[in-house]
Each structure stands twice: as structure tokens, then as C-alpha cells.
Amino acid sequence: MFVAAVRSARLERTLNSPGSYTLVIPDNSAFAALPKAQILRLRNSGQLRKIVRYHTVPATIGPHQFATGATPMTLQGKPLRLSQTGSVYKVNGATVLCGNIRTSNATVYIVNKVLLPPR
User: Fold this and answer.
1) pTM
2) Which of 73, 102, 67 is nearest to 85 (CA)?
3) DSSP-derived secondary structure letter, 20
């Protein structure tokens, strides 16, 4: 679902450009758990673009940054809150289901919630 959101938000070119990114990707069940009113709001491409940009950091985030409670800035212009308690990693309170997955230009973390940018 996140790939479809990236396409709808017209961010494919940005995310395929040279550079280093970290993507915090909600699993499909996270999208399914959104209230119907929020899903309707997401259909507005401006809102969808903001949310996809909020899940994207223009830098590499490693596991050590969770332990230090880092607050990396997203493409949307708002920071994420990283944390670690024991072996559990979180982003804005969403649990990381798997992560530190490397692609050609990104590091990926899969989370159990859709992250909504602060207003």
C-alpha cells in the first residue's frame, strides 16, 4: 500500500534519485486500521503527499540512533521520535516490526502504524 501511496503522491522520482533515505513504511494492516474519515482525507493528494514525506528521512538511520532517542527531520519538515526499550524499537510510538533493511539508496523500517505528522 505504501508503494501505491508514493505513486499517488508523485514522489517516485524523488525517492529514486541519488542520495540516502530512510523509509518508515507502515505495513498493510496499519493502513487498514485507519478510521474511515482519515482514509477519506488521505485521498486528497496534498494530505497523502504530506504523510508519505513524513515517513521519509533524507539520511540513513541506523539502529544506534534509536538507542540515543534521535529526532531526525523528515522530508515533510517535522521530526520523528526514535526510541528503544530493550529489543523493541519505536518511531513516534509505532513498533518497528522489522528494520535496517538496506536497498540501493535507502534503509527501510516497517512499522505497525501510519505516522501522522503533527499539526
Assistant:
1) 0.90
2) 67
3) -
